[in-house]
Specification:
By secondary structure, the chain is an alpha/beta fold. Among the domains are: 204 residues, 3-Layer(bba) Sandwich (FAD/NAD(P)-binding domain), CATH 3.50.50; 84 residues, EF-hand (Recoverin, domain 1), CATH 1.10.238.10. Helix 11 packs across helix 12 and helix 13 packs across helix 14. InterPro entries: EF-hand-dom_pair, EF_Hand_1_Ca_BS, EF_hand_dom, FAD/NAD-bd_sf, FAD/NAD-binding_dom, NDH-2, NDH2-like_C.
Length: 579
């Protein structure tokens, strides 16, 4: 039996009284009679939906590692979320050096941000635009779109916020070296990798022209990499593989003229790695014919030559065909202006506290390369720590009193725990021994001067986090978890004791967990430094690198594309077309 039903309210043929809605329900059966019922349902107000509480507006600037990880983990039902970024995709930046050599295709490492937001559900808005000013006083940001214009024709618009998450990353630091911006390539974005790939092929094609002499060919095939960090080293290794395994077969007449130089101002490359990895990398590059110049500072880059400075040799000018600048990161211009507004104009990057909140700025958080955590120093709070621990107000601390607050001190000041480990101390008793020379009994007491002496060297263990994708990703995940529990922790705070003030902090402070780092060195060899001082170098580590980077892809689509690119390269080699 088929049934049909419909609702009719206030039709033109019905008489309607003010404030009363008429409801007509018709239910009909296919094989029997119908029933028609008419009733007054009461006032219109009774049919209105109850007003939901207005959600706080969260604006996210950037779709890099920090911003995208934050969005993927945020419960978007709790907030009105808006995302603003000049690029409408997420890029897996650790594979950018592979894009420059054609090992991996550009589209294999990017995922459209709208596809990521679609999987989240909810009503997350995205605008492809660039923020050029933050107004923390009025909680507004000024944005500009390059793909559309407003009524004034400039594409600018305002967005207000309750919470602002700044995850805009950083730009390459040129150290104001003349000629770098005009003549060097950078390697921060997918577009940068594509330009480098085309430039490499242009250098080979130019060197193959019939009217050039030998010196001109050598100049065109001299590739210079400035910066001996992980990005510069990996690019130099990737370029060497591209030349020796693929381009040497396609350009046999000029392949012997190719030269790759790696310039580093410090005494060694890969200084953030263990010395065993540094030594292995330098030895391998020497065997591969990559010219590693350590202790050289680039002072000028012209169209045809790079000028370097060394205390022993003075200024040296070297002709080149292509140069890639990879010497660290710098702050974006609008972040510099924002820092001046909030009293951080003398800093290199935005300073946040241990909860990723921008200091002296309500409702603003910063994650990733654009910010650094300004860890609170123990000696700044030593008097307050003493006060909190001295529960009996005796003016002295026993070992037991210190032990009672030690866990909270470890959480609030992680440098204390690092100091204990570095000095191989067994516990707080060793702290007291360092101040008094003896602490066999729990009743041994310390006054505030002795307490200061025991903790005087602790702040030397304060660590600054590296500007890596791993740090930004963990910060995004942590901040999303805080936002998801914002309401619950108001009643049940989970953080450590407030040293300055009463009660406890709402959240545990952010703690970075280092999961290891890789340094691909070419020739299917990679160096890895993993937790626990475990060093692995060689071909087996290269396969570990493949598995980790495939696993860390943001979607199954990019995972399959990257793996297929690697497989294609093994079978057919790298693509050398100038597309």
């Amino acid at each position: 039996m088929r049934w049909a039903a419909f609702l009719w309210e206030g039709a033109s043929g019905a008489r309607r009284r003010p404030g009363v809605s008429n409801l007509l329900v018709v239910v009909a059966a296919a094989s029997s009679g119908g029933l028609v019922a008419y009733a007054d349902s009461g006032s219109d107000a009774a049919l209105e939906k109850p007003q939901l509480p207005q959600r706080k507006k969260v604006v996210v600037l950037g779709t890099g590692w920090g911003g995208t990880t934050f969005l993927r983990n945020l419960d978007s039902r709790l907030y009105d979320v808006q995302v603003i970024s000049p690029r409408n995709y997420f890029a897996f930046t650790p594979l950018l050096p592979s894009v420059t050599s054609g090992t991996v295709e550009p589209r294999s490492i990017v995922e459209p941000i709208r596809r990521i937001l679609e999987k989240k559900g909810g009503e997350i808005k995205f605008w492809e635009a660039e923020c050029f000013k933050i107004d923390p006083q009025n909680k507004k940001i000024h944005c500009r779109s390059n793909i559309g214009t407003n009524l004034d024709g400039n594409g600018e618009f305002l967005v207000d916020y309750d919470y602002l998450v700044v995850a805009v990353g950083a730009r390459t630091n040129t150290f104001n070296t003349p000629g770098v911006v005009e003549n060097c390539h950078f390697l921060k974005e997918v577009e940068d990798a594509q330009k480098i790939r085309r430039s490499v092929m242009d250098c080979f094609e130019r060197a193959s022209l019939p009217f050039l002499d030998e010196e001109e060919r050598k100049k065109n095939l001299h590739f210079v990499v400035v910066g001996g960090g992980p990005t510069g080293v990996e690019f130099a290794a990737s370029l060497h593989d591209f030349v020796t395994e693929d381009l040497s077969k396609l350009y046999p007449s000029v392949q012997h003229l190719v030269k790759i130089s790696l310039i580093e101002a410090a005494d060694h490359i890969l200084t953030m790695f263990d010395k065993r990895i540094t030594n292995f990398a330098e030895d391998k590059f020497g065997r591969d014919g990559i010219d590693v110049k350590t202790g050289y500072k680039v002072v000028k880059v012209s169209k045809d030559a790079i000028t370097m400075q060394n205390p022993a040799t003075g200024d040296i000018s070297v002709p080149y065909g292509m140069a890639v600048w990879s010497t660290g990161i710098g702050t974006r211009p609008f972040i510099v202006e924002f820092m001046k507004q909030i009293g951080q104009g003398n800093r290199r990057v935005l300073a946040t506290d241990e909860w990723l909140r921008v200091r002296e700025c309500d409702g603003v958080y910063a994650i990733g390369d654009c910010a650094t955590i300004n860890q609170r120093r123990v000696m700044e709070d030593i008097a307050e720590i003493f006060r909190v621990a001295d529960k009996d107000k005796s003016g002295t601390l026993t070992v037991k009193e210190i032990q009672d607050v030690l866990d909270d001190i470890y959480v609030r000041y992680p440098q204390v725990q690092l100091y204990v480990k570095s000095k191989q101390m067994n516990g707080i008793a060793d702290f007291v021994r360092s101040a008094k020379g003896d602490a066999e009994k729990e009743s041994m007491e310390l006054n505030i001067q002795e307490f200061k002496k025991a903790l005087s060297l602790v702040d030397s263990q304060v660590k600054f986090l590296p500007a890596t994708a791993q740090v930004a990703s963990q910060q995004g995940q942590y901040l999303a978890r805080c936002f998801n529990k914002m309401k619950d922790v108001e009643e049940h705070p989970e953080g450590p004791i407030r040293i300055r003030g009463e009660g406890r902090h709402r959240f545990l402070p952010f703690r970075y967990r280092h999961l290891g780092q890789f340094a691909p060195l070419g020739g299917e060899q990679t160096a890895a430094q993993l937790p626990g001082d475990w060093i692995s170098i060689g071909h087996s580590t290269q396969w570990l690198w493949y598995s980790v980077y495939a696993t860390k892809q943001i979607s199954w689509r990019t995972r399959m594309l990257v793996v297929s690119d690697w497989t294609r390269r093994f079978i057919f080699g790298r693509d050398s077309s100038c597309i």
